[in-house]
Amino acid sequence: MDKPLSGIRVLDLSRILAGPWCSQHLADLGADVIKVEHPERGDDTRGWGPPYLNDTQDAAYYLCANRGKRSIAVDIAQSEGQALIRELVATCDVVLENFKVGGLKRYGLDYNSLKEIKPDLVYCSITGFGQNGPYSKRAGYDFLLQGMGGLMSITGHPDQAPGGGPMKVGVAVVDLFTGMYAATSILSALIGRGTTGEGTWIDISLMDVQVSMLANQATNFLTSGKSPGRLGNSHPNIVPYQAFATSDGHIILAVGNDMQFQRFCQVAGVPLLASDERFATNRNRVHNRTLLVPQIESLIRTKPSSFWLDALEREGVPCGPINSVEQVFADPQVRHRGMEMQMSHPEAGEMSLVSNPIRFDDKHSNSDQPPPRLGEHTCDVLGQLFPDRADYLDSLREKGVIR
After folding, report:
1. Do 74 and 115 share a structural domain?
2. According to the UniProt entry, where is the signal peptide (predicted)?
């Protein structure tokens, strides 16, 4: 059965994570994604290891975001390479890029140049700070934006606590969110094009995305005028909603309403705590967290994690362990949902990747093509585009324009 984006072709000029994360998602949904890479260097993340896939030169970092694509190696700094890309654009629906502002204009590969070739082109630009504004010329990386965009001011333990201070998130969440915003924007633009017949230029910045994903913390500030601070594993608006030490480890207790708090108190053997006016409602528990949390800490520390997880689960009180990544992939729910997938790699044999979480009719939406080797599809793609110009392509290969 055809996938939703079958027949859509994406020319992917992006590299690192935000752009490739977007285009991998589009590839999983059925789009033909042509990944353009430098003939010698390729995508930077191919070398961002260890670990590397067996004896190949590709790092696991690269593998996480490039499933389902066709790689062509073209040097766009050379005029012949630019000409190839322009001819390719005429056959594409979408161009995705994450060069610095104005970086592609000197090659004639910016939106205004390419829409002359393909008037209904959907062109998506991902940058650190957007196409305009005082920071627009700056390069943007996830870590920088987690700091500049406020995320690190609310992540980590308070300054006065042991180990306190700003902390980044353990994965590049700004890049990942940006990739998904880019994907939904592209899909929306394609739907709009189907109605109007017109293309568009999408401007997405990591800074804008980071500010938007502050979510309730942003509106907490906009409503109160007070900047939220770091609370470690606690929640600014819900109590108790944090990690607690048990007698042999840690658990997460995520009490979302007053009934759940009452049931927790029953399991903990302190039912009167739930009827205490200071703690009976979430509003009061938040106001009196410094009184309540130490009591809960003392209670939970008296028994092992298994006791709390089993007893609270039976009573419908949200809780869970803090798993290592190894434990995540051994978890029966994760295994049942098939989140670890196997693919065949032409050099390395069987390889494991993380599945796309989307399901259609209870089937995962994953491309069946592994992450491509550098320039693996140059001959196929350009051979289809120029079926009668083999000598021309050979001359470009000799010049190092293609690989």
Report:
1. yes
2. none
